[in-house]
Amino acid sequence: ETGVTQTPRHLVMGMTNKKSLKCEQHLGHNAMYWYKQSAKKPLELMFVYNFKEQTENNSVPSRFSPECPNSSHLFLHLHTLQPEDSALYLCASSQADRDDGYTFGSGTRLTVV
Amino acid sequence: AQSVTQPDIHITVSEGASLELRCNYSYGATPYLFWYVQSPGQGLQLLLKYFSGDTLVQGIKGFEAEFKRSQSSFNLRKPSVHWSDAAEYFCAVTGTASKLTFGTGTRLQVTL
Q: Parallel, antiparallel, or unpaired for β A87-94 and A108-112?
């Protein structure tokens, strides 16, 4: 496999559930990102990891918890979500010491019921 | 702080017509500029990028963009649009690779 892979593609969860989104990159990149894309809103950067260390958290509620066990994998753990958290969650990766832009996964469409 | 403005939320063009999507950026130094395309239910795909040098850059799928420093613009163009180009287009800017800032996107509709 190549590129950035996100699983699952679709997820429906109740407000009391706990679930995790997974992102895996096969590009040898050293930076990974979570973005939230809601209808009629700009892409929102949630978290940035450089060399497995979290370098940015854009005031994201604690019900979203990222984990980066190595430079190829990134998780987003979800618990006690709200209906307004329903969105497309996009993972991206890049080589932090180059400016080639980001490579995005296809996203996870999350619906909170 | 860097920012990107895409003034057109929605554009409709006929197949075969030319296309120009506008992008204005704000950044204190020399920016790195990108255009991405997103088909429904998909992630973002890089169309082209500008770092330095020739201000007219060529990308995939027949797209090009021109960097104009004096106007702080990086408009995307295509001479002849195909129905498959219908998608959402995002302009983005960064001064460092670790923080890419996106515009709000322009949705392109193509009529046959």
A: antiparallel
